[in-house]
Each structure stands twice: as C-alpha cells, then as structure tokens.
Amino acid sequence: MTTTTTMTASTTTSTHRPYLEALQRDGFVVVRSILTPSEVATLREAATEVTLRTRNGKWPYLRSVPKQFPPWPSTPPPSSEGGIWGVQHLMHPEMPHREKFIKTYFSPKILSVAEELLGLSASKKEATSNDATHEELLVMELFNLLVAPENIPFELRWHRDDISETVTPEQELQLLQQKSPEGKQSHAQYNLSLCPDASLIVVPGSHRRVRTDIERAADPYEATLPNQLIVRLEPGDAVFYDSNILHRGIYQPKVEGGEEIRLTLHGSLGLKDRSGNSDKVRATAVLQHGIGFWIDREDASLGAGERAEKMRANLISLGRGENVGYSLQG
C-alpha cells in the first residue's frame, strides 16, 4: 500500500515543509481546498465559457483529440471524433476572463506552495513579497485548461513529460538526475480542479527511479501498473506533481451539449536559471506551447502587480521559441 500525503493550504509552517517532503517521497502532493467555493464558482463559470468558445472554433489555441502532445491544430475536430481536451493560453491578451485566470495563477496561496516545492527559503520568500529591488526567482510559465472530450473517451499513454520512453535504463537514470539534480526541481507543475476530477493516474515514487521491467514491457495504454494510484480531486483541490513521475490520464467523455464534467486548470511555475547556462532546462518544455510568441506583446501586461511583471520578464528572457522543438512526439 502506497502512503501519500494530502493537506489543506494552511498546513505548512515556516519550520516544516510537508509539501516538499511529500513531493520528494511520492512525486506528487495533493493540497485540499486551495480555492474557496466562491473562487471555484467564479472560475468554473469563466472556464465553461472559454471551453464552449474553443469547441465552437472561436479560440485557436487548443488541445485536440486524439493528439497527446504539441503541436496541435488551430481548429477543433468534430465532436463526433472527440473534439478538444484542452484550452491553451488562459493569460493571453485576447482570452475572455483573462483577469480571473491571472488572479488565480498569481494567487499567494499557489505561489507559496510552489516556492516551497522549489526550495526557496523563508528569507527569500519574504524578500520576494516585500523588496521591490530583489531578484525575482520565479518564472511565469504555462496556464491552460484541461476539459472532457465529447462523445468518446480519450486516454493518454504512460509517459514522463520530458523524457522519452525509448531511452535505455542508463539514459533514463541520467536524465532523471539531470532534470532534478539532488532531488531539486526546476519547476512546479499542478492540476487545480473546478469539478470532481479523477483523471490523473500516477505511479508513486517513479520520479526517482528508472522504469521496472514490467513498466517497460507494458502496453503504452496499460490499464493497470503495479502500485498505480488514481489522484482524486474535489473542486478547489490541487495536485502538484513532478512532471517526470510515470503518469497518464483517462478522460471520460461528456455528452455533446451537456454540462462540462471536467474543468481543470493546468499550470506550471519555473525557477530562474542562475547558472548562466544558455541551454535553459525549461525552455523547450515551456516554449513548445507557443507562449513565447505573445508574452512580449505590449498588451500582454498582466495587471497583477510588480511581482507578476518580473515573473513575465523572466519568461520573456527564455526567448520566443523559434525552432525550439518538442519534448515528446505523438
């Protein structure tokens, strides 16, 4: 039986790091009620509207069935083929309800969890909040929306976000260590549910080891792997997870024209690379989604305070993303 940790957003203290301890041990941590019921209701209304807009071909940045990884087309497939399973770029200048999504992304509740997971000390956190001249260490990354396909179920294959399944065990271990040196992450990734959500399936602890023989031999869509765990979220809950944990998604379909049954905010925050290495650890993973082509627009200012603008500047410094390539194919 795998032991996992779930907490409320007020659990952590200045001397204890339960989120980080759970992430390092299990590869994920569930934080309960990070949003209030009122915040959930506001965001659910906004997310429903932008999902419908995207399904109707009025928003070009989407994730389409049956494609798992970018690039995706700019027009949605018909609902008879599943349609879309995601809406991209919630903070884009032309996104309806942009200000609501921005407020959530830069919420102190979410940023504080990310800071803990990225190993920022209490003194650095305090400086981040209070000193206008400090160096901002967080990087604005991605904020998207994951939704249910229409009419037909959709599954993601078992994968790690930034390591190909075709690598040898030796290469896999080397890459895992490279992506999280000494167990330290360069980013914090999360799913934040606005509806009950049991789509994410993980293998706890797999973020620190190579795949077993059983995992390597398994079908890409294997229904059950040893010790797998379904992450169950209620509205307002979030799961933060190591993106290179072995995981997949199973998305049940909604009835065409019916109520949305999955609205899950999918975000990531980066840690500024201070090594001077031009081969940025996160550049491909982030810029492959096309955010670099609009984030430096004059009308892309976030309106969320000085810290948010510094985080946006850190993202802009990664570049626009021409010829950056893709982390995975399919």
From TrEMBL:
Transmembrane segments: none annotated. Pfam families: PhyH. InterPro entries: Phytyl_CoA_dOase-like. This is Phytanoyl-CoA dioxygenase family protein. It comes from Talaromyces amestolkiae.
